[in-house]
């Protein structure tokens, strides 16, 4: 029987951390036999930090006209890609602010230029809010925007910008950013066009446990409808250097993170992969998360600017991630962005 929203709420509120972890671990073992934990090598590339949304949890963006605002030259993007490939990287995660002056022509040029030079590189790019912004400034439908980006080389869409999928929360922390239904609609449209996407959740922004359950319910329903999500990736808000941080008394704790991860593994019975994060929780909690339902530790994130700007200085490399996985009792295995290719030793 499928877990109901009220059961999920009870579990999030429960103190039985170990019991919850064991249940989620049993699901992980059933879905991913073979004692393998996967990871990926890719690089975050932020093509611009100029943004019009002023999200209260973001320390990365610069407003239009700021002396610190940038749009990366293509040559510097190529250089970052070269470094990624030399480290065994198979793809890039390219995202940026919501730039009011960059229309679809810019993105088509950017993606096709990269694809022409690096045809094997997987382009996991442009979150739902960015796609909505491109559609708006280019006077296009979301469907046509995604279709044109796909023609230019877009391979999949990251789940960023979801934060908490509940408008009560979104209105409070990111008033100008897309609403829940808009985020879902971008992913629905992408899935219908044959594109895979990921789903994320950034929690610890002052939401209630009910808001978290609402988020999971939205994702489960859309996945029932389309089957297009490859993975669910939760992490918690990093509050340093952000305006929202002043109002959040306590960051999410390790226990809160592990419980949320485990409930997500149990609730999202239709999403195959659940990713543990090392970026905000740190390497040690990430290791424990592998016994709380996660089957993947994500990417080494060669360059991460968004969470870094908010005060999180954790870094990693392939050797460290493999050690982290092996030391937790698993077999490390590199994968590609879509979890289709595995590189076993
Ligand atoms: S989170 Fe994204 S949309 Fe919000 S201000 Fe930062 S860059 Fe802009």
Highlighted features:
14% strand; TIM Barrel; binds iron/sulfur cluster; 345 residues; four-stranded mixed sheet; alpha/beta; globular
Give the strand order, joined by hyphens, for the main sheet: 9-1-10-11
The sequence of SSEs as H and E is: HHEEHEHEHHEHHEHEHEHEHHEE
Low-confidence stretches: none
- In CATH terms, what is the architecture? Alpha-Beta Barrel
The biggest beta sheet reads:
4 strands, mixed
Large-scale geometry = globular
Quick structural summary:
With 345 residues, the protein is α/β, with parallel strands linked by helices.
List the SSEs and their pairings.
Elements: H1 5-13, H2 17-31, E1 36-40, E2 42-46, H3 74-86, E3 91-95, H4 104-117, E4 122-125, H5 128-138, H6 142-152, E5 156-157, H7 167-173, H8 180-192, E6 196-203, H9 209-226, E7 229-236, H10 254-267, E8 273-274, H11 283-289, E9 296-299, H12 306-309, H13 318-327, E10 331-335, E11 342-343
Parallel strand pairs: 1-9, 1-10, 2-3, 3-4, 5-6, 6-7, 7-8
Antiparallel strand pairs: 10-11
Helix pairs in contact: 1-9, 1-10, 2-10, 4-6, 5-6, 5-8, 8-9, 11-13
The structure holds iron/sulfur cluster (SF4).
